[in-house]
């Protein structure tokens, strides 16, 4: 018998082992749900799959009685728009400020301490300020996401630029590159895939800030809906919404990964010469 | 007229004296090989020539004028590693220098101008034996091919001085011999002035027209950084007898710790 640390699952076993916890969780849920519903048919905590199915159907494919909207899609669109704008803005800031900080010591001296200080502010603590300054509309939500993840992206980009081997920067100068050309042709293309990596890492926080902002002030959105129906203990809506958000998060991550692979073949070749 | 001249050059990092009172004069077309124990300041000297570091004291002249204090296209460089750009393929790596000159803002060219640059780059790559790897990324190349690429990339700018910092140090002996032929033929064709650091004394003797040994003249056992290295041997090659080779070899060996 080999040591435990040397035993590796076969391909099939790996898949099975991966599925197992999910199946167990599902079974546990079904079992607990059945128990509670048997004791009290009106129990709302662990709704049966059939009522979850009905709730999904009505949220996705039946117009809301009051607004006439298909709520799931309206919520999804609103949330994705806020998330997309916030992340895009943060990524742009990360790229521009991060690369400037990393490549130009004069910028770094001026901006790096500020970015450092800003990144230490807990974003949720200034959410009230955002609501006061930007109102309760879209801007404050996008601003919260941006304030929440931009400092991380900026610092990460700065670090990535500083990690480029000094030899490369010297070499580019001996090829006649100006500062601008060096940034444009040597630094930017090399940190772009790293930016996408960093964005993927920050998506979790972006969702967190989005849902928090929506929970507090919104008229539609995935986070808004979850917190709204919480008042009626509508677990049959909350649970599928949570799963839907998880799926969206997975898909964005997957798409970004594919995009990186497609656009930067050299990056996956080891990255270093 | 001397291409490079140094007068009483010192380089210190704080208390650490790295180079001490280095004086030298180099004529155009010389092929200078530099040996010395590891950490004695060879790379530092090359960085002074590049303009990446500035001397603490003394003068360093290029064509009789103070050397520009940042790198430019006059002085090409090949390092032991990281000399080529991993995000550009072989052809793009060599085209880069010409593209930067042709397009100040974007650093990119298109159409006819690009084709002309491309042609020139392909010719250069063929001359260093990379004609069949034009579209490969550096990470797909062997160590020797990467160094060929780095050479081609530097040469396309037609530098007046070529600096090589242990360029073949990481290569297998067989490939090294090929690279020796390549660098010699480049040197003969272009008449470049070459400074090459090597840790292989034989290589230094074989390739250069002049060999420098960097070493400390004085030692302070209590404070090893108190004295810096200087050129202790400056040997025109081709006129060397075996005893000198032997003496240098011993002095290099004695200093290895
Ligand atoms: N940027 C630096 N700051 C401080 N010390 C340095 C720096 N660069 C090199 N040194 C020191 O200078 C000495 C010579 O280094 P180097 O020129 O790289 O030696 P080598 O002959 O092996 O190329 C070493 O002791 C090293 O610690
Ligand atoms: Mg060195």
UniProtKB/TrEMBL annotation, chain A:
Residues 76-260 form the ABC transmembrane type-1 domain. It is found in: Cell membrane. Gene3D superfamilies: MetI-like (1.10.3720.10). GO terms for biological process: cellular response to sulfur starvation; transmembrane transport. Keywords: Cell membrane, Membrane, Transmembrane, Transmembrane helix, Transport. It comes from the Bacteria. GO terms for cellular component: plasma membrane. It is a multi-pass membrane protein. It holds the Pfam family BPD_transp_1. InterPro entries: MetI-like (IPR000515), MetI-like_sf (IPR035906). The chain crosses the membrane at residues 12-32, 83-104, 124-154, 198-218, 238-256. Belongs to the binding-protein-dependent transport system permease family. This is NitT/TauT family transport system permease protein. It comes from Thiothrix caldifontis. The lineage of its organism: Bacteria, Pseudomonadati, Pseudomonadota, Gammaproteobacteria, Thiotrichales.
From TrEMBL, chain B:
It comes from the Bacteria. One of its GO terms (molecular function) is ATP binding. PROSITE patterns: ABC_TRANSPORTER_1, ABC_TRANSPORTER_2. InterPro entries: AAA+_ATPase (IPR003593), ABC_SmlMolc_Importer (IPR050093), ABC_transporter-like_ATP-bd (IPR003439), ABC_transporter-like_CS (IPR017871), P-loop_NTPase (IPR027417). Residues 4-241 form the ABC transporter domain. Keywords: ATP-binding, Nucleotide-binding, Transport. Pfam families: ABC_tran. This is NitT/TauT family transport system ATP-binding protein. The lineage of its organism: Bacteria, Pseudomonadati, Pseudomonadota, Gammaproteobacteria, Thiotrichales.
């Amino acid at each position: 018998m080999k040591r435990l640390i040397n035993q590796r699952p076969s391909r099939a076993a790996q898949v099975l082992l991966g599925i197992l916890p999910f199946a167990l969780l599902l079974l546990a849920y079904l079992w607990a749900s059945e128990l509670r519903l048997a004791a009290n048919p009106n129990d709302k905590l662990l709704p049966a799959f059939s009522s979850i199915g009905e709730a999904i159907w009505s949220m996705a494919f039946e117009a809301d009685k009051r607004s006439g909207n298909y709520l799931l899609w309206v919520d999804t669109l609103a949330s994705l728009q806020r998330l997309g704008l916030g992340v895009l803005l943060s990524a742009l800031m990360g790229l521009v400020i991060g690369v400037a900080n990393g490549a130009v010591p004069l910028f770094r001296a001026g901006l790096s301490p500020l970015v450092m200080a800003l990144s230490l502010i807990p974003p949720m603590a200034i959410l009230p300020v955002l609501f006061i300054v930007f109102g309760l509309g879209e801007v404050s939500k996008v601003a919260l996401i941006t304030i929440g993840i931009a400092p991380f992206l900026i610092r990460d980009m700065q670090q990535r630029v500083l990690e480029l081997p000094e030899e490369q920067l010297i070499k580019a100068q001996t090829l006649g590159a100006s500062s601008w050309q060096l940034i444009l042709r040597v630094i930017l293309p090399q940190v772009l895939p790293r930016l996408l990596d960093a964005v993927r890492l920050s998506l979790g926080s972006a969702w967190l800030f989005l849902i928090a902002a929506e929970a507090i002030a919104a008229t539609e959105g995935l986070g808004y809906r979850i917190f709204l129906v919480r008042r009626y203990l509508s677990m049959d809506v909350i649970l599928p919404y949570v799963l839907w958000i998880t799926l969206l998060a997975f898909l964005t991550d997957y798409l970004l990964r594919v995009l990186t692979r497609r656009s930067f073949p050299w990056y996956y070749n080891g990255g270093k010469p | 007229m001397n291409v490079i001249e140094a007068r009483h050059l010192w380089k210190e990092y704080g208390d650490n004296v790295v180079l001490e009172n280095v004086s030298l004069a180099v004529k155009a077309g010389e092929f200078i090989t530099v040996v010395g124990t590891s950490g004695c300041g060879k790379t530092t000297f090359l960085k002074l020539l590049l303009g990446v570091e500035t001397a603490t004291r003394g003068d360093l002249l290029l064509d009789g004028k103070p050397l520009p204090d940042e790198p430019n296209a006059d002085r090409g460089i090949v390092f032991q590693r990281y000399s080529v750009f991993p995000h550009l393929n072989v052809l793009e790596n060599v085209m880069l220098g010409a593209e930067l000159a042709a397009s100040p803002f974007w650093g990119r060219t298109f159409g006819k101008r690009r084709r002309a640059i491309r042609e020139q780059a392909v010719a250069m790559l063929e001359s260093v034996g990379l004609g069949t790897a034009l579209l490969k990324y550096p990470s797909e190349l062997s160590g020797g091919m990467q160094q060929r690429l780095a050479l081609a990339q530097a040469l396309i700018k037609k530098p007046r001085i070529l600096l090589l910092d242990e360029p073949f140090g990481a290569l297998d002996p067989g490939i090294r011999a090929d690279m020796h032929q390549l660098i010699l033929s480049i040197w003969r064709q272009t008449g470049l002035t070459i400074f090459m650091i090597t840790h292989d004394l034989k290589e230094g003797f074989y390739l250069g027209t002049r060999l420098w040994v960097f070493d400390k003249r004085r030692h302070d056992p209590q404070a090893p950084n108190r004295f810096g290295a200087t050129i202790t041997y400056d040997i025109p090659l081709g006129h060397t007898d075996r005893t000198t080779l032997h003496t240098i070899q011993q002095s290099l060996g004695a200093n290895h710790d």
